[in-house]
Each structure stands twice: as structure tokens, then as C-alpha cells.
């Protein structure tokens, strides 16, 4: 299968082994994935201190697609179901910019109805970031907050 990787600041599409889901995981056939600032930082080697140095590193955090295989112990999803998910581990040889991606079932949710895969792919990392920021504020009942600038990701289709 194909995966987009980075090596010394250069992007390359390479053939990698097809990943198999383990216990508590699902495999998603990517229909859309995003490009986020963290992908650019990874490409340029700025985050290499957070993972073991490798010749190549996979890119991509957000994904929208269909479940194509279900690992043991996963009962919340069905084959062919449209989902969104996030791959939040740096340094993997293949991430969401690949034909297929294996994710922990806990990192996957059903895609919202009525949205395209391109639209759905923008949700996981932006939504997680917004949720974490709101949690850090420690708001109390009756307080409110305005979240702006949540459009930092760019969408890419990889057929």
C-alpha cells in the first residue's frame, strides 16, 4: 500500500506493508486526510526529539474513511461504516496519509451524517485541540468562551 513519508525534509510516496489491526483496533480505508502544522514540523525534523530517529517517518493526524477491518475485542463499529479518527503518535512509519491506517478504536468516532469525507476529516485534531483548551480553562456553570481560529488545517485528498 502507499504511504506519504518524510525524510530529511523531503516528501515521498512509498510502498509499505499493509497494517493489520490488533486487539482493540480498526483499520480505516482513507478517503480524506488533512495537512496540519504538525505535519510540516515533522517533515522538517523539528519534532524528532519526540520519537526514535528513523530513515522515514509517516505523516498525517486526521482521517475520514470507511472501516475495512476490525480487530479482536472491537464491538462498537461495523465493516463499511464511515468514521473519523486521529493518529496522535509521532514517528510511526505510516500514519493517516496512507491508503489504510490502523487506529485504536478509542481514537475513532462515527463520521457526522450529511458531511463529505473532506469535511469530516477536518474534525478530529481541531476538535481535540479545542476540547483540550476548554478543559484547561476550568470553566464553571454559567461561564462561556468564544473559540476562534479553529480552521488551521488544510484538507488533502489522496486517491
TrEMBL record:
Gene3D superfamilies: Medium-chain alcohol dehydrogenases, catalytic domain (3.90.180.10), NAD(P)-binding Rossmann-like Domain (3.40.50.720). Residues 22-84 form the Alcohol dehydrogenase-like N-terminal domain. It comes from the Bacteria. The keyword Endoplasmic reticulum does not apply. Keywords: NADP, Oxidoreductase. This is Alcohol dehydrogenase catalytic domain-containing protein.
Amino acid at each position: 500500500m502507499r504511504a506519504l513519508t518524510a525524510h530529511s525534509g523531503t516528501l515521498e510516496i512509498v510502498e509499505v506493508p499493509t497494517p493489520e489491526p490488533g486487539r482493540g483496533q480498526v483499520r480505516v480505508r482513507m478517503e480524506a486526510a488533512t495537512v496540519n502544522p504538525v505535519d510540516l514540523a515533522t517533515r522538517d525534523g523539528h519534532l524528532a526529539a519526540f520519537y526514535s530517529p528513523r530513515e522515514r517517518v509517516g505523516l498525517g493526524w486526521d482521517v475520514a474513511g470507511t472501516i475495512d477491518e476490525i480487530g479482536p475485542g472491537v464491538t462498537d463499529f461495523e465493516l463499511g461504516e464511515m468514521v473519523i479518527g486521529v493518529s496522535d503518535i509521532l514517528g510511526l512509519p505510516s500514519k493517516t496519509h496512507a491508503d489504510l491506517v490502523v487506529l485504536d478504536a478509542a481514537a475513532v468516532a462515527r463520521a457526522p451524517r450529511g458531511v463529505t469525507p473532506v469535511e469530516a476529516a477536518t474534525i478530529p485534531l481541531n476538535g481535540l485541540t479545542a476540547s483540550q483548551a476548554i478543559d484547561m480553562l476550568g470553566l464553571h456553570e454559567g461561564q462561556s468562551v468564544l473559540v476562534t481560529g479553529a480552521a488551521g488545517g488544510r484538507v488533502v485528498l489522496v486517491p
